[in-house]
Amino acid sequence: MDNGITVILKEIHHAPIVSFQAYVKVGSIHEGKYLGSGISHFIEHLIDDGTERRTREEIDNLVEAMGNASNAYTTKDHSQYHITTPRQYLTQALDLLSDCLKHSTFPSDEVEIQRGVIWNELNGELDEPTQLLYDLYYETAFREHPVRFPVGGYKELFMELTRSDLVEFYRQHYVPDNLIFVATGDFQSEEMLGRIGVAFEDFPRRSPPAIELPREHRQLAARRAERHMDVELAYLVMGYHGVRIDHEDAPALDLIATVLGSGESSRLIQILKNQHQLVYDIQTWSDTPRYDGGCFGFEAELVHGKLSEAEARLIEQIERLKSESVSESELRRAQTIETSEYLFALQFVEEQGAMLGVDELTTGDCRFHEKYLQQICAVTPEDIQRVAQTYFRPENLTTVTIRPKESSSSVHIPQAQSVPSAAEKHLFSNGMRLITKSIDTAPVVSIQAMFLGGTRFETEENNGAFHLMTNLLLKGTKDRSAEVLFEDIEAKGGSIGSVSGHNAFGITVNLLRQDIEYGLECLADVLLNPVFDVDALEKLKLETIVGIQAEEDDWYALGRRQFLETMFQAHPNRLRAAGSITSIKRLSRKDVLDRYQRYCVPNNMVIGVFGDVQSEHVQDIAQRAIRGFLCNMLIVTVVEVLSSLLFGVGQPGGRLYKRLRNEQLVYHLHGYPYFGIDCGYLAICGSTVPNHMEPLIALIDEEISNLQRQGVSDSELERGKQMCLTNYLLSAQTAGVQASIAVLDELYGFGYDYVNQYEAKIATVSKEAIRRAANAYLPLNKRVISIIRDA
């Protein structure tokens, strides 16, 4: 645009959605005299808390009326703001986002409210081992570059920031030449460009401050740092200095990360987790930013006593990359995974906008990712070995750990333009139900096979049996080992996984379009021919126990566990899907086989195949694949709207969130309704400091009482309904989510096309229905309060 704003537009017509994303080229590394204070993050919190035209309350109400799908984040090198909304609200969304970017006023009272919110956030991070782990890594690995500072800043420097500091920094950096504005979705580009031009016509061009980032000197010796916390597990990050996104070695580093740590057939999962059982979880990452602060690293969660051996085994795998070439098949697998991840992301309107925006931000080319995939596909085994030798030098390594305290234990990129067809249901003679839906937004397919089962059908004695059984389905069949299963499917750019919850369990498969027959054949093999190997069972039991122990380091998981056990003292909803340590130790292969024989039967199963498929073709393949599977012998929408009115849907919102944020009582607040087969609950979850606990509970009680007595206004009710509708619209963009909704609705007896009635049912919710539901389902004398606090 004439005033310096970079505008990127992409029409996507497969859903009536528009997404606006604004990228401001300022993050924690650009803070100059405010380095280490988190001023960029502070401004991100305040940008929508008041403008020259609107109060924060007016902004909140407008966002909720558009569906409440708005949020922001700050990184090391940019701040991002976005609104995704149904097409009919694009005018309001564009006007609001441009208004906040141009005319934020930073009201003094809002500054202090957000200061309290961020203060609580920074305090909360002190109890979060993973966040501390990464902060510790960057502080240790970098000595000169400002990437070493945490995005949120240090508490002491943050508290010194004044409103004047914020206004000055905002006026300097929030200028047209620092702004990339992206619009994707259901619109006409020429008209949209005109709308954006009008929205920003009063945004005068000003020069952003010149910022010169220091270069990090080459690391000459290995570095190590360690912290102790009240945790059950140990946490490890090992990393090497890497490259920028525009460096010729960036594609090879990304592929190394995929070879080592992407998927169950990757080297580190196979060797460190499955073979030697040294880690509970391990992830590999290659961060190639637009500045000289790139890193290649590994993060692992493990038992404290296995740290030394895990580090040694990890170094062995790094040295192996340097001494021997990866095979052509392993490299092709990694290249296919990189490509398929991009193709699966094309299902989302907002994801396409994010890729365009980040590409423009980091390289100046909004189509960079398409070219980058071509570079990925051109990498050779020799490139992998050379790059490993170049960067994975012992002196370039930084290792940080958090331990328990001593007292603790060349690809075609398709364009998405068409409208999906309606779902179709097919009943087979063995009782199996198949639901298909053609969605050609991307050349991908999601297959989901779901069964009634889970903790709803367990007792204290066999709790966790469904979890073990479902996971063991993927640990080998009569003709495929687990290694072969994952290696083959991941080599095709696909994935296979298991699901086990309170009411259902099943297997999910995601693949590219051309591999649908292979996917259904794999699914049939997993369901029909599992071996339930005893050794695999014992390994899985150990992993499950370690996972249960890991929950002891997660305050949210502890609180939810305590809440469910208190609310459901007899009902199986109190049980953990993974089981308890006691029950897992007790379960045998016979117990697991019993769950399989009773519940893995065709008349208890619904299969969904959604994506770039034809219904008749899928029926034929499924009929052949599952032929050996023999037969073996709502109030909901009102509560959804009620919950949205209290605490939003998808993103924080509603009267509780607003009230508690104003009172600076919470760092984090969200809620959700849970609908079980025979009973459910509505949960409110918050994080706060200890001396705010009683006022927090009192204000929650007060707001619920007000809702019960006074009900809601017409405008508030409409905002609540729109939040529910928008959340569904945004969440159901992918074939996988649509398949899951249809399959579970069919499984639970609502019918596979129940979702088609959703909008009409939401529309019928009245103010009186909300008031009745609040009184019926939120009686204060029947509430359950779970509190997890530091000892």
UniProtKB/TrEMBL annotation:
Q: Name one Pfam family in it.
A: Peptidase_M16
The record's InterPro entries line, in alphabetical order, gives:
Metalloenz_LuxS/M16, MPP/UQCRC_Complex, Pept_M16_N, Peptidase_M16_C
All copies of domain Peptidase M16 C-terminal, residue ranges: 161-336, 640-722
Key words of the record:
Hydrolase, Protease
Q: Which Gene3D superfamilies match?
A: Metalloenzyme, LuxS/M16 peptidase-like (3.30.830.10)
An example GO biological process term is: proteolysis
Keyword tRNA processing part of the UniProt annotation: no
Write down the superkingdom of origin.
Eukaryota
Q: What does this protein do?
A: Substrate recognition and binding subunit of the essential mitochondrial processing protease (MPP), which cleaves the mitochondrial sequence off newly imported precursors proteins.
Identify its protein family: Belongs to the peptidase M16 family.
Full protein name: Uncharacterized zinc protease SCO5738
Originating organism = Geodia barretti
